[in-house]
C-alpha cells in the first residue's frame, strides 16, 4: 500500500475540512492549499477533486456560486448546514480512527 492510496480514502474529509475552515473556495484554491498544508506530500489533482465536489453538491453538502473573473466563470464551493454536520461527523470518525491506529502501531509489550 502506497502513501498515495492512504490519502485517497480521506480526500472527501480533507476537502470538507478545508471548506469548513475557509467559508468558500474554488477548485484551484483547494488543490493549492492541500499541497501547501502537506508540504507537497499530497497532490490533489483536478481529476480527483471535481468528482468529489460534484458528489458533495449532489448530496446537498455544498452549494455552488458562480462568479465571473477575468472573462472566466469561477465556481465557488461553500458548505451547507448539512455539510457542516457531515464534516463534524467525519472529523470525529477520523480522530477516533487515528487514536486506534496509534494504539495498534505503538510498541506492544510481549505476552508472557
UniProtKB/TrEMBL annotation:
Q: Name one Pfam family in it.
A: PadR
Where in this chain does the record put each Transcription regulator PadR N-terminal domain? 15-87
> Highest taxon of the source?
Bacteria
PANTHER family found in the cross-reference section: PADR-FAMILY TRANSCRIPTIONAL REGULATOR, TRANSCRIPTIONAL REGULATOR RV3488
Q: What is this protein called?
A: Transcriptional regulator PadR-like family protein
The species this protein belongs to is Sunxiuqinia elliptica
Amino acid at each position: 500500500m502506497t502513501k498515495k492510496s492512504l490519502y485517497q480514502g480521506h480526500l472527501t474529509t480533507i476537502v470538507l475540512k478545508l471548506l469548513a475552515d475557509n467559508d468558500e473556495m474554488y477548485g484551484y484554491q483547494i488543490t493549492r492549499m492541500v499541497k501547501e498544508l502537506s508540504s507537497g506530500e499530497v497532490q490533489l489533482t483536478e481529476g480527483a477533486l471535481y468528482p468529489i465536489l460534484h458528489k458533495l453538491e449532489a448530496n446537498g453538502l455544498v452549494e455552488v456560486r458562480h462568479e465571473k473573473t477575468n472573462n472566466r466563470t469561477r465556481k465557488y464551493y461553500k458548505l451547507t448546514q448539512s455539510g457542516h454536520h457531515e464534516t463534524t461527523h467525519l472529523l470525529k470518525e477520523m480522530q477516533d480512527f487515528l487514536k486506534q491506529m496509534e494504539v495498534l502501531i505503538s510498541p506492544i509489550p510481549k505476552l508472557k
